[in-house]
Design goal:
Layout (H helix, E strand, L loop, with lengths): L6 E2 L6 E6 L4 H4 L17 H17 L3 E4 H8 L3 H11 L2 H4 L1 H12 L3 H10 L1 E2 L10 H4 L6 E3 L8 H4 E4 L2 E4 L8 H13 L1 H4 L4 E4 L16 E5 L2 E6 L5 H13 L5 E6 L13 E5 L2 E4 L1 H4 L4 E6 L6 E7 L2 H9 L5 E4 L4 H9 L6 E4 L2 E5 L3 H9 L3 E5 L16 E5 L4
Parallel strand pairs: 1-20, 2-3, 7-8, 10-11, 13-16, 18-19
Antiparallel strand pairs: 2-20, 4-5, 6-7, 9-10, 11-14, 12-13, 14-15, 17-18
Helix pairs in contact: 3-7, 4-10
Pfam family, one: ADI
Protein name: Arginine deiminase
EC number: 3.5.3.6
Amino acid sequence: MHTSRCYVGSETGRLRRVILHRPGLDLERLTPSNREGLLFDDVLNVERAGKEHDYFAQTLRDEGVEVHLLRNLLADVLENSDARQWLLQQQCSAYFLGTKLADEVREYLLGMSALDMATYLICGLTRSELPGRSDSLVETVKGPYDFILPPLPNHLFTRDTSCWIFNGVSVNPMAKQARRRETANLRAIYNFHPLFSSQPFDFWYGNNDRKYEGATVEGGDVMIIGNGLVLIGLGERTTPQAVELLATALFQAGAARQVIAVKLPKARSSMHLDTVMTMLDRDCFTIFPEVMQSTECWRITQGSGNKSLKIESLGERLFDTLKDHLGVDRLRLIETGGDVFQQEREQWNDANNVLTIRPGVVVGYEHNARTVSRMREAGITVMTIPGSELGRGRGGARCMSCPFDRDDID
């Protein structure tokens, strides 16, 4: 019988518990004029996106996966007065809001219910929503519908803000300003929520107030292959500096034996490793061939000194290296479906970004019909979900899920 724990041992072992975030007011506050700054290509039909997300969540529940919604977790945490004070210091600092406005916003939020506070910390707070007026210079220069706390619509992609690696979690310093406040919300959940605070686990990275400068990492780039191997993409959002720091923490704790860093194009279409590659079974990956068939990679292992790293080039031998590590005769590599034009369209629409819920069983968008067909022909069971609106956010089932309880590889 499985004992619940905070542990992710692979990409393909049975998925048991996961964090999702249902889109709501945070996405309703996305407009044509602010969407670019909030990292979206377009505004979404929020009601339809919510229904699609509900379908996704129910699909997981029907398969025995325990689903936890981020806003509910945060609201639970904010019932704790120490957590309230800590999180408001993080989210409403004088450096972010100015000395006078920071005090006023904290006081206003402290008077709310835990659920309302969680909603504002995720969905944002405009000047007109703050009662009264002050002589704060920061508030004075804002219009009535300018954000004092900007919304965090990218919380939808729970994979990125934190990622579990074996018996610990990286609470990720995010690359883009629009996403950096997300990290404080996840730190509050992992430090204060009884679901986590009652369990033994390690923080690999990010659980402090340090300025991370260029050492950013996002969970869409992190894949736990299993048996001591972690794969990390180097693209638009995750930097070599962060990979070295994260690898050092994993090696010092004996949690991993090797990290393979994979070079990605610095382009929005391939912003994370899981947009061009996902593991479906012990011997099976879906790949976008244009990127993954000729990508350069490096193996990182523990060096001779306590803190040193050994880094060796693997050239373009990523899949040979994975084959040897996994102990299989060959890998099944399922390419994005269709001709060259259709492949590019389906990759853009997250055909390669699927969530494996147990070996050979995955969840993906129904509109990527050609890639879904190829997966099924290769023996993979694909459970399709609607995503005409969710997909316009540029994230698939893997992006929208943060596993924190998953079995080791078979």
